[in-house]
Design brief:
four-stranded antiparallel β-sheet, 447 residues
C-alpha cells in the first residue's frame, strides 16, 4: 500500500471521529431534551369552548402535535422546582432584638428596633414563608403581643404616653398576603378595646367614673383554647400620694359576641344577694377583723401578729398590695423605678414580720401599725412563709431590680427610665465583671 492510500485512510478515520464527537456534544442533548419535554396534550373539547347549540357548527379538535424527531409523547408532567422565598430585608437602621414562634408554629413575631431614631416595630411573619410578612405596629417605648392559638387574633399591648397606650385587638383578614386589621367596631375613638374594657370595669365595680385610666394597667393574660375569649386584667399602679387605689379586676372579652364578661372568679366572689349594697361584704370583713382578741381561736396569735400574703385585707400605709394579691409580670415591674422596686421587696418581707436591719427601711416600717417584727426572724425565714403568688413576684422584682442596677452601672449615673425593657447580663459578662471588680479591689487594698 502506497502512501496515497494511507493518507486517504487516515482522513476517513478522522472524519468519522469528528462526526461522532459532533453527534455526542450537540445533537444528542437536543434529542434528549425533546424526548423529556413533550408538548402538552390538548384540553378536552368541553373545556375549550362553551356547550354547542343546535344551530352552531360542530367543533372538531385539532390533532395532537407529533414530535418532529419521532419521539412518543407521554403525559408525565415536568418536575416542579420549589424555591424557598427569602425573608424581606430589614430596613436600614433596624436591628432584630428577638423573635418568637407562636404555639401553632405557623406564625413568627419579630421585635425590631432602630436605636438611632428611637423607633421600634413589631412584625408578623409566616413561619413557613418568610417573605410573607406584615408590619403590625410601630412604637417608641414598650409593646408586646398575645396571639390566639389559631393565630387569627392578636392583642397588641403598648406602654406609650397619652392616648396611644393600652390594649387593642387585631384580626387576620388575609393569610396570603398576611394582613391583620382592627375590627371595624373597635376603630373609632372611645370604642377601642381598652375603652370598652375600662367602661365595663367602672360599671361593674361601681368605681368613681372620674378615675384617671392611666392609674391602672390593662393587660391580656391568656387566650382560651378555642380562640374565642381572651382574659384581661386591670391592675392598679402604685402611687406616692394618699389617693385611693383602684381595685383590681379581671374580665373576658368574647371576639364573637364582642362583649366584655366578668371572669368566673369575679362572679364567684360577688355577693349572693343582688339587692345588697356593694360594700356590705367589705363591711362584714372589717367587722370580723376588728373583733376582740379573746374571740379568736387559740393558736391564732402568730397570724394576728403578721398578716400573711394571701390576706385580702387592706393594710394601712401599704403601697404595693398587688405583690400579695396577683402575679405581676416583667412588664408591670418595669413600670417602677429602682427605688419603688427596692421598697416593694422590703414591704413583702415586712408583711411577714421579718426583722429589718436596713436603718432607713426599718424606720419607715416602724410607723406601720401592721408591722410586727419577730426577733431573729430573717428574710430567708419569711420567704419560706410566702404564698405561691409572692414567691413568683419576689423573683420578678429581684430580676428587674438586678437588671436596672446593671444598666445603671454601665451608663452615667441617672434614674432608670420607666418602661425600659429588662436586659440581663450574659454569663460571660458576669464573669468578666467579677474579674475586673476583683482586680480593682486588689489595687485599692480591699477598700
Amino acid at each position: 500500500m502506497n502512501r496515497r492510500w494511507i493518507a486517504v485512510a487516515i482522513i476517513v478515520v478522522a472524519i468519522i471521529v469528528f462526526a461522532n464527537i459532533f453527534i455526542l456534544l450537540f445533537l444528542m442533548p437536543r434529542w434528549s431534551s425533546a424526548a423529556s419535554n413533550p408538548p402538552s396534550s390538548p384540553a378536552p373539547v368541553a373545556a375549550q369552548a362553551p356547550a354547542q347549540t343546535a344551530s352552531s357548527p360542530p367543533v372538531t379538535a385539532a390533532p395532537a402535535a407529533v414530535p418532529a424527531n419521532g419521539a412518543v409523547a407521554t403525559n408525565k408532567p415536568a418536575p416542579v422546582v420549589r424555591q424557598h422565598p427569602t425573608p424581606p430585608p430589614i430596613q436600614p437602621g433596624m436591628h432584630l432584638e428577638r423573635q418568637v414562634v407562636t404555639a401553632s408554629g405557623n406564625l413568627r413575631v419579630r421585635y425590631l428596633r432602630d436605636r438611632a431614631k428611637g423607633v421600634r416595630e413589631i412584625t408578623l411573619q409566616d413561619a413557613h414563608s418568610p417573605a410573607n410578612e406584615t408590619l403590625l405596629a410601630q412604637y417608641k417605648r414598650n409593646a408586646w403581643v398575645v396571639v390566639s392559638p389559631n393565630d387569627d387574633w392578636v392583642i397588641l399591648e403598648t406602654r406609650e404616653k397619652g392616648e396611644e397606650a393600652g390594649v387593642q385587638l387585631y384580626h387576620r383578614v388575609s393569610a396570603t398576603p398576611l394582613k391583620y386589621e382592627v375590627p371595624e367596631d373597635l376603630r373609632a375613638d372611645g370604642s377601642r378595646l381598652r375603652d370598652v374594657v375600662w367602661q365595663t370595669y367602672l360599671d361593674q365595680t361601681q368605681q368613681d367614673p372620674n378615675i384617671d385610666p392611666r392609674r391602672v394597667t390593662i393587660d391580656a393574660t391568656a387566650w382560651g383554647p378555642d380562640s374565642e375569649k381572651v382574659t384581661l386584667s386591670i391592675a392598679p399602679l402604685p402611687t406616692k400620694d394618699d389617693r385611693a387605689v383602684p381595685v383590681a379586676w379581671t374580665c373576658l372579652y368574647d371576639v364573637k359576641t364582642k362583649q366584655v364578661e366578668p371572669s368566673p372568679d369575679e362572679v364567684a366572689e360577688a355577693p349572693a344577694d343582688e339587692n345588697a349594697a356593694p360594700n356590705d361584704s367589705v363591711a362584714a370583713n372589717n367587722d370580723a377583723e376588728q373583733a376582740p382578741p379573746d374571740q379568736t381561736a387559740p393558736g391564732d396569735d402568730a397570724a394576728q401578729a403578721a398578716p400573711t400574703g394571701g390576706d385580702s385585707q387592706d393594710l394601712e400605709g401599704e403601697r404595693f398590695p398587688a405583690t400579695r394579691e396577683q402575679e405581676i409580670t416583667i412588664e408591670n415591674a418595669n413600670e417602677l423605678d429602682a427605688d419603688d422596686i427596692h421598697y416593694a421587696i422590703f414591704e413583702m418581707f415586712a408583711r411577714h414580720g421579718a426583722e429589718i436591719h436596713d436603718a432607713k427601711m426599718k424606720k419607715v416600717f416602724a410607723d406601720m401599725p401592721w408591722y410586727q417584727p419577730r426577733a431573729g426572724f430573717s428574710f430567708d425565714d419569711a420567704e419560706l412563709d410566702f404564698s405561691d403568688i409572692e414567691k413568683h413576684n419576689i423573683a420578678v422584682l429581684r430580676r428587674v431590680r438586678d437588671a436596672k442596677v446593671a444598666a445603671t452601672r454601665r451608663s452615667e449615673p441617672k434614674r432608670p427610665v420607666r418602661g425600659e425593657p429588662v436586659e440581663e447580663e450574659s454569663n460571660g459578662q458576669r464573669v468578666l465583671r467579677g474579674v475586673l471588680q476583683g482586680v480593682s479591689d486588689a489595687l485599692n487594698g480591699g477598700n
